[in-house]
Amino acid sequence: MKLKLHHEKLKVVTNQQAQLKNQQQKHINTIMYIQKQVRNVSAANNVIADMCVRAKDIICVQSVIKRILVNKMTQESTHIYKNEQSDLKYEQYVLIYIEHENSNLPIKWLKSISRILLIICEVEILTSLTLFRFNKINNIKQTSQLNQSSTAYLLKQLFNQELNTEHCFIYALRQTKQFTESQLDNIKSQIVKNQDLLKLENLKNIQGLGDLCVVYKKTNYKEDEEEARNSNDYTFIKNGKVVQTDKIDNYNVLIALHEQHYFIYNTAPCTTMFVKNYEAHKQYPKYFSYLDLKSIETKQSGTICYRHNATYKTKSLELIRCLFKYNLMTKCTAMTIENQDQFDQMIDAPDLNDPALSNCQEPIKKPNLKNMQQVAQYDEIMVADFETNTTTGKIIEVEVINPVSGKVEILKQLERCPHKEFLVCYCTENGKVMNGINIGSIISYIKRLYEDCKEDKRVVCYLHNLGYDASYIMFAGLKIKNVLKIGSKIACMETPIYLDNGNMVTLKFCDSYMLIPTKVSKMPELFMPGTKLVKEYFPYDYYTLTRYLKNKGNVDEALEYIRNCTREQFVNSIIKANAMIDDNTFDMKKYAIYYCEIDVEITRTCVNAFRKQIKEEFGVEMCDYLSISSITKAYQTNEGVFDDVVNIKGSLRKYLQQMIVGGRVCTKNNKKYHIKTKLQDFDAVGLYLSAMKRCYYPTGYAKTLTQDLIAHYNIKDNLFQIQEDPNSPDLRTLYVSVKLTKSKDFIPRAFPVQSYIKPKPTEPKPRLKKDEKRELTEADIGIGTRIFSNDLPDNKIIFMDHIALQDCVTFQKYNYEIISGVYYETRNYRINDIAAKMHETRQVYKKAGNPLQNIWKLAGNTGYGNLAQKDHLEEFQIVNEKQLNELLVKKWNTIEDVTSLGPDKYFVSTRKELNQQKGQQHLACMVLSTSKRIMSEVMCLAEDLGIECYYQDTDSMHIENDKIKMLSEAYKSKYNRELIGENQGQFHSDFDPEEFKKMFDKSSIVSVESIFVSKKVYIDKLEMKIIKKKVPRVDDPDLFDLVDLDESQHYIQTAYHMRMKGISDGAIKDAVDKQFNGDPMKLYEHLLNGKSVTFNMLADAVSFEIKNFVYTSRNEFTRTVQVIDDQMIIDNEHVVDSQDI
């Protein structure tokens, strides 16, 4: 109801007193009822604050009050959130309730209340003031000066759920009431395909807008107010064309634009008077009566304040600009909005004082782990593999540039075609390997298998690299759902199979590579050492559809398409397949089936072995998890590692994500070096597991650092009271925003402990024309790269935990100032025992030659990664055209991409709500900071001793070999720990060339010459003493045994340890052989001098182009590498390491 709060109402009240007598008694009874139910004013405050602050419970004021009246409230039941600053009075609850429930409220009842409060503004939740949908929210806390029409206006807009689900442009159009739903759907369908249409200059290109006028102001409101008030700018659009001059009265669709947000341009039922005089109104609320329209002079200060007049109106654009001018709008934080689907772009740094901080945290639930006796949730476990043809078989001529001469040459190459499956092999957990033409064979088998079942079934099918095989499943006409894509990999997806008896089998495809991250050819040695089951050779490009149908292959011709295979080896494989027709002819179908069945058998055997070992070692059912990292986390959770630890989400997760900094990777002082001193690759033993053994996990809920605590920890002695061990004088864990400055005792380091990411230029670059390439400039070098430096940007706010902050003080003598942050008060040290167990168990198995050591190795390498997962910003589904059209209407502004998969099938990517994503970024920070401390303790001590280190890559350093003993003694003296060894926290030599593995004396290997060009680009020339030789086995000449050499037969062998990010070992070797006369040192010298090198990426591998999930093999794929300053450039594009982000 609209309260008519003007002076004339008093006359009406006098005449109505008799009629209202009965109603007054009714209201008194209502108040007595409320008094009985709401037993505690503070409790009522708490409930209202809790329900309103938690935006997921957004409901209108009327509903809030009803809930208060219906539910009995006590202090105990309403302790979730306490609004310390709320001074709502009991009578105010009653008043608002009666306002909504009784239309004939006596005016004298209003007089008895000093002010009317709008509860939602009092507790300061999402009051974005109307449909305007700004990335700022209304700061007004007391709204006693707004009349009821203004209140109704605010409520209508604030609690309209459309605000959380619809783009501001569409919502503004809807508010004009000039468009039907079908017309709005038509506009949405255009925008989803091209978001640039929403720019002001592009609105004319949207069909169906009619006659549209957009009102905005170029003049800064903070300048001359009158000039700004009268300086509206307009964009007039008629029939898709911009009209230069026109009158606003000629348009029926009026919307406003401010701060990149659209909203309706209309008359708001309130004026700017209240905004301008807000502070005075807040200070003297009792002098403002709704019944007196005259201006009054406050008794305390003599200030003249003006009452709101219901006849005065303000245009919506003017009202919003006024709110901005008087600083009554603040940035909207992620904690303010539970559903961030439409607000993800407006989120900035979190408000750590936001009372909704606790809503970003929830306890970690223990998984329902299955023990060895329990059965998996799947009725059948299968393994499958596809074989495809990749060429047409035709020879074509192409022009290529010779990387040495630079001249254009004509080469003959195979004509490529989209990959098409011609064979699929599959088997059950214990069954025989079967084959067919495509995925339909598997579907038919499952239907036959369960044709007599009387209930629904679940089957899981593993494919090694599902991302590739998924393309042949997606195009098979199946109904695909629950697609999970992690990065570029498809982790799993499901399809329902409907049986003739009315039941259903859910077939889930999973990627076995995420469980066992290694090639199929390497899997037997992990789980079946010494087995004769090995991956065979296959001439992929020789298998054209024409040849396959003719079914006769030429051995010598096919051999040309196989790398690193002799004729004898290939013929032996054909004989094993029983596919040899004569001396030079083989049965292509038989051999393809044999090859594919071997792959399936290897995968099946290893997956079964892996599953069994996981059950024995971890007590976990493999099929319940998608990756080795999730299995490791489940094991650790069951062992109590995460007891009392909370998941974090929303803006707290985003805040702590800024503190996750990967391992330090850089050259000494970020410069290039050519060293001929003997160096050692000094490697930390299991760095992340070592860090886990040493650190702890903070438990409980994060709390905001108060100003008193900030002042406390800005004193260095207090900061260092926080120690690693359980007996620490201070058990808090800090995550803070800090300013660092150099002290007079500042120590510049060759490998600094702190870093920053080089920002993008403030000036945007001009847009490129189609097919135009941007030239890389000096300013582009290093953008987006994490730079470890002694010279941090001025006034740079750095985010870190207390461990990293202590290291800044300890190792470089920084001064610091904590600005803000959060802290945890308790700890869980269980990770120490589990990390030690994981390392020790692996060592026991490794010494015994037990393949179980590989399980513990995989678990140890992935135990950290699950903690620091980045946002998965997209969700995926496969739909038909009807479903796609429904999505375009309902979720049009969340759709990122639509890919056609053929007739009536589309792969749709939509933006994911950030608040659904949970993680343990605070734990990842602890592991990473502790790991960097382990490295800094050694490297800074070495630098203090004058021992040179030239390169670090996360867990290893290139250090002077002859001075390691001196470093070890100093380390023992300072830290009372042994430096060299195979235990956690210790270091050892990591040079181990694959071609001489286990053949040399490990104490003899050293680098005699090294070139460090930039991070991830370096080479070591190694020398080692060979003490063993390879002897072919009698039973299988392809396998070797190692035999000791007599001491007199020992000799010095040279090898090379080469690294170049983004370039394979085979491509490097190819470039060395063809461009540098077989000398790899010359290649790196070439790069050291700033020159470029082109690499053939197909020298030892195949490469695919992927478009709309269709794979095509590349005939040509090169990369040109150059290092400018200390930054690697590939194909004129700056390379950003994943650790840099």
TrEMBL record:
Q: Which UniProt keywords apply?
A: DNA replication, DNA-binding, DNA-directed DNA polymerase, Nucleotidyltransferase, Transferase
UniProt family annotation: Belongs to the DNA polymerase type-B family.
Name this polypeptide is given: DNA-directed DNA polymerase
Q: Which PANTHER family match?
A: DNA-DIRECTED DNA POLYMERASE
Q: What is its EC number?
A: 2.7.7.7
Instruction: Name a single GO biological process.
Output: DNA replication
Database matches in SUPFAM superfamilies = DNA/RNA polymerases, Ribonuclease H-like
Single GO molecular function: nucleotide binding
| Catalytic activity as recorded in UniProt | DNA(n) + a 2'-deoxyribonucleoside 5'-triphosphate = DNA(n+1) + diphosphate
Q: Does the keyword Transferase apply?
A: yes
- Establish whether keyword DNA-binding is in the entry: yes
